[in-house]
Amino acid sequence: MKQLTSQIHAFGKALMMPISVIAAAGIFLGLAAAMQNPAITGDAFAQMQVPQLIIGFIRKVAGALFANLPVFFAVASAIGLAKAEKPTAAFAAVIGYITMNVGISATLAAKGLTAATTTPAALQQAGMDQTTAMMTSAEYIQMLGIFTYNMSVLGGVIAGLLTVLLHNRFYTQQLPTAISFFGGRRFVPIVTVVVLPLVGVLLALIWPTLGAGIAWVGEMIGKSGQYGAFLLGTAERILIPTGLHHILNETVRFTPIGGIAIVDGQTLVGALNIFNASLTHPGSVPDDALRNATQFLAQGKIPVMMFGLPAAALAIYHTARPEHKQRVKALMMAGALTSFTTGITEPLEFCFIFVSPVLYLLHALLTGLSFMLMSMLHLMIGNVQGGVIDLVVFGMLGGSKTHWWWTLALGVVYAPLYYYAFRFIITRMGVETPGRESEDEKPQQVAADERTKVIISGLGGQANIEDVDCCFTRLRVRVKDMKEVVDQTLLTTGANGINRVSEHDIQVIYGPQVEKIANEVKSALGVA
Q1: What integer is the mean pLDDT of 65-91?
Q2: Per the record's keyword annotation, is Transmembrane included, yes or no (predicted)?
Q3: 435: helix, strand or coil
Q4: What is the four-CA torsion angle of 35, 36, 37, 40, rounded to 10 degrees?
Q5: Cα–Cα 20 to 30 A to 411, which of 71, 275, 388, 441?
Q6: Please, which residues have CB within 8 angstroms of residue 507's CB and are 6 or more apart in sequence?
Q7: Phi first, then psi: what are they for 430, rounded to 5°?
């Protein structure tokens, strides 16, 4: 069970690789969409050929990224879970994804289903009514030139996970001397080519049932309306300490659970896919379908990230002991600014979620309430973060139909609500937020030039460290013996919190600067 927990966390970390890319691509795409909107830039700019050609080029680049997301997720899943030889795992994952879809395509062809026989016109000629024909045709797609089921990102994840299972089993496989050249890491792509097409055949047989089940869950959540948004917002915050919120988010963003829309005869599944399609093909997604999708995206986070948590940071600062206020001020200002601009909240959240379950639960419920209210007020702001960048690019520049002003109106309410609620609970319950720790527990911060050495020491020394990586905010380390890890030592390096996710996996929360810290630690360990 503990090994499974470790693998789930590794999988969640792996998902961050493609998400970080498409989040940035989404911002560029949102800016491009705004610059091609005459209501924002004026008719004269819309008629300027060179700028519009450049903007069109940006749209095509971003559109190509979104269209090939399944491949990216296949590669990311394999890299994240490979025990060693990660480049080989990534290479095999691409092969696995392609050959799996070849297996699906061959099975469909055996049933008489091809790109030509599944067009809406062909299906209508076969006796289907127009609506049914369009719905049926949308179940299929051309992916990398292969006719296959439209499985979206889930297909890539399936291929990546199966490939990495083969990789971890066979990357050290030794073969007889006569064919030893094909052993080891070279054997992984070979066995992948043999196994994944067969998986594709099996998947083609069960996908209609599996897809229908996922769609049914999505319909149930869709029918729940704003209550589904409340559950998502609350559950995501509750899962923050575990790191499993990434998996919940990607499920909603890229599977039918986050919504289904048909655009130009093609089925779009997942809230983020639908929103991105509205950016790459303006006017193609009906507003109602878009609102159903964005209720699970950035709009519900904005009042919390831009107003609520910065106000909570102010409350933590005001309740700190006078002699510690200067130290706490720097910490809270950095966390509040990060939350306000980018929507990255963990540096602030880990200041209170472990020391006060009451504050933790209050924060989760208020986040869920924000999601619900933004859904009820028919907002239409997408992307994934929830800071001021998303508000400006996807809300204000998106025009009045996004109803972006409601985020500011709720933010005006959330700021004092968070401030006074946090201040009351901290003082009344004696919560040991930063600056209120017991004197014998308050860690002294080490100098910047000593940080890397102290981190390695806190993790039990170089001999105790098996692997080091990071996501957006967390240093993720696999250790041989968890008993050798000293939390207090790690906290002296500027960490906001420590999360032991299994008997061998630990996460040290540093915030957005974690990438630099991870590189420094890897370099010191000689594995950069």
Answers
A1: 85
A2: yes
A3: coil
A4: 30
A5: 275
A6: 9, 243, 474, 475, 476, 477, 498, 499, 500, 501
A7: 65, 40
Lookup result for tokens 């609506």: 131
Which of these ranges, 147-151, 180-184, 458-462, has the smallest mean pLDDT? 180-184
Measured CA to CA in angstroms, residue 262 lies from 138, 250, 286 at distances of 7, 20, 10
Neighbours of 469 (CB within 10 A): 16
Q: Could you report how far apart the first and last alpha carbons of the chain are, in Å? A: 31
Average pLDDT over residues 330-346: 83
Give the three-state DSSP class for 251.
helix
- Both tokens of residue 46? 């819309």
- What values do phi and psi take at 460, rounded to 5? 100, 10
Report d(CA 248, CA 368) in Å as an integer. 14
Catalytically active residues are 471
Task: Write out the DSSP string of 86-155.
Answer: HHHHHHHHHHHHHHHHHHHHHHHHHTT--TTTTSHHHHHHTT--HHHHHHHHTTEEEETTEEEE--HHHH
Q: Which stretches within 239-308 are classed as H helix?
A: 245-254, 271-280, 287-294, 302
Q: What is the DSSP letter of 280?
A: H
Q: Residue type at 74?
A: A
pTM more than 0.85? no
pLDDT band for 334, please (50, 70, 90 cuts): confident
Three-class HEC string of 369-387? HHHHHHHHCCCCCCCCCCC
Going by the DSSP 8-state scheme, the letter that residue 446 receives in this structure is: P
pLDDT above 70 for 441: no
